[in-house]
Design goal:
It is built from six helices and no strands. The protein is mainly α.
Amino acid sequence: MALARPDYRAANDGARTRLRSVIEVCGHGAFGQVGPAILGHIAFWDGYYAARWEARIGGDVEAHRALGPLVDSINAAGWPIWSALALADAAALATAAANRIDAVVASLSPQLIAEVEAQGRHRLLERALHRNEHLDELEQHLSAEGRRHGATRP
């Protein structure tokens, strides 16, 4: 019996909804540049993967080559830039990038999906995995901030 194909659209939609919810909470509290940095990171990678998919759809068969060890260098180079963003700007960029990549993935042909699945590269399709990892970080940070501020209140 064949395994059912993952529902990438539903997973991505759920993570995008969660992103909006976390952004709403972030807007009500200050927590330094962690929020903008993480949201900027999400925006960059969702936008990057949207651009890669758009290139692949346009015929660039090399668009999905693996980055390997470059990922850490890209993140290290991007972090100071993402940290410098205003929270509202980072939130807008993250939302726009999530909308873009999720729309691209939802429009993919079954052939392109099967090609990527055969390569074991489902993270190119299920952007929810990356997004949720970092939304978990934001929620943990918000929770820690809440405990810290709650402990100092009279």
